[in-house]
Amino acid sequence: MEIQDTPMQKTLSVRLTTGISDLPQIVGDVYGTVMAYMNQISVGPSGFPFVIYYNMDMEALDVEIGFPVSCDVPGNGTVTPGSIPAERILCTVHTGPYSTLEDTYRKAMTFIEEHGLKPKEWMYESYLNSPMETPEDQLQTAVCFPLE
Description:
CATH architecture: Alpha-Beta Barrel
Structural class: alpha+beta
CATH class: Alpha Beta
Oligomer: single chain
Number of helices: 2
Distance between the termini: 17 Å
């Protein structure tokens, strides 16, 4: 667990509502949509793909899925420009299958409680390597909680 200050990151993303069971397929589809648009406008990602979670309603997750970019770019109606604000965050890296992320979340919430921290209403994950190229037990996911 590490508390750090992060700079603002410009983004291109899609925001939508979905159930947890559909999330893996939707994330992959949305990354493809955003990357296709980025290729069309000749802009590459400036960091790791992310998913921002604005709630934890497993039947109706309000999520934003996309990539950081290094410059201001227009949207196209589906893909919209935005940003991840500069924040003080608690961040930890989960290593292993996405299906075991819950263990890392529990540890982070325990750390937050033990240290009297107050997380904001939203949080995000950044995917540090690709499930297409990395064995499942070596996947790395940064789990980040912006703090009040």
